[in-house]
């Protein structure tokens, strides 16, 4: 079974208005949420075969912080321009081109595209994937091309704020939302 884990980058800083969108770093909340969501993914045994990240600084930092928590080699994170400021069609094409030998892939990117992608792949009707939100989509298709074209099932939707003021704020993680059966 194929599994796509969509992760929106953690909360970014707007402290320096002179920085380009691509160069915006994480703020303190983002630096707390990303490792906490990585721990959650590890605890749920949702470890990836591959990680794809947007080249934007905030997305790549999120990817690296999560990779550290799950013992995934940071040097193996693939940076893909197709994730940054692209429309949903580009993301669907990117998924369809994944190596069929990969079973679980993390894709770390941006809104509104990630929310649109979740809804396209699952018809879940999610209003918003928040910063550092994690969505797991499970597919019963053997190829990523079929997954991209035919869609799958929303299996998990996690938000840092759900965890007593945000995961990584020194609180215990709570039960996750499991959607479907």
From TrEMBL:
Organism: Candidatus Methylumidiphilus alinenensis
Highest taxon of source: Bacteria
Region (Disordered): 14-35
Gene3D superfamilies: Phosphoglycerate mutase-like (3.40.50.1240)
Residues at which substrate binds: 58
Ranges of compositional bias, category Basic and acidic residues: 19-35
Catalytic center residues: 9 (tele-phosphohistidine intermediate), 85 (proton donor/acceptor)
Designated name of the protein: Histidine phosphatase family protein
Annotated Pfam families: His_Phos_1
